[in-house]
Amino acid sequence: MKTTSSLFRPSLGIPLLLLLALLAVPPVAAALGAQFYVGFLARVLIYALAASALNLVLGYAGLIGFGHALFIGLGAYCVSLSSLAGLESAWPQLLLVLVSCGCIGALTGAISLRTRGIGFIMITLAFSQMGYFVFVSLKQYGGDDGMSIIATSRLGAGIDLGSVLPLFYAAWGVLAVTLLWMHRLRHAPFGMALRGSRQNLARISALGFPARRLQLIAYVLSAILCGLAGFLLANLNAYASPGLMSWQVSGELIVMVVLGGMGSVFGPLLGALAFICLEEVMKSYTEHWMLIFGPMIILIALTGRDGLMGALHWLDVRCCQRGASGRIDATAIVANGAKQ
């Protein structure tokens, strides 16, 4: 005999309900005349995708990198530069994102993975800053001011990603597929070996797994996903800027992953939603919101080791304990009835 509480797992049910609730935002916002929230939550979905990409490297492989903003910026500039050249179709632009982010991710990853710890952090940060200063120096493409996108990407059949509604659903769909892929990857041999390399790289290598190669593959896949997030972000803003490659963006992604829960499937989604919503609320009260927001994030990280997903896993345990006590009580009642 099972109770209702034992059937519901908060760590799975709450994020899934949240993801479905986000899907219902556009029609509700249209009915209420609050279109701002569609664009705002589209931004949340895009950053959740970028945080999921970083989670593959940070949460699964245990590699702390400060360079993923480079690939977001590359994805954005693939849209702006191809638009400037007269290319408006999204599919060739996506191919350009795939090739450029994949190749640069393979090159920078192969070099960065020769180092460990603080060395890996610094060299990924250096690559990101190199990309930033390269695009700052290109005055013909806006330099430090960035460049507006002449024509946003078109998927065909009249679907323009420059419109908020198609972009929202595209970002939601890509994020949903990514989260499903992350869930399957977590329990696949590749994912398990990758997670093992986070714990003990030498032991995984001794077992016959090419740990370095697996980490490089994860890094390249992460770069491509970040490039895809940059592609969507460029269409949302109709703008590309070197600021997308700055170390602050990489730092924000790390905070989102840590806040949501490193190594979890839904942690990046929860972390991105909490981070961006808290930021927006703080901005509405004071222009010195960072003085409040910074200590708040530090406090959350210190008190919740596994982030928001850790709190949901704690609820899982509580539900299981309640369900177990319910089954024990039911068994006792049946036993007493049999005696009588």
TrEMBL record:
Subcellular location: Cell membrane
Protein name: Inner-membrane translocator
Mode of membrane association: Multi-pass membrane protein
Keyword Transit peptide: no
Stretches that traverse the bilayer: 40-61, 68-87, 93-113, 120-141, 161-182, 216-234, 254-278, 290-315
GO MF annotations, alphabetized: branched-chain amino acid transmembrane transporter activity
Nucleotide-binding recorded as keyword: no
Gene Ontology annotations for the cellular component aspect, listed alphabetically: plasma membrane
Protein keywords: Cell membrane, Membrane, Transmembrane, Transmembrane helix
Species, as recorded: Herbaspirillum frisingense GSF30
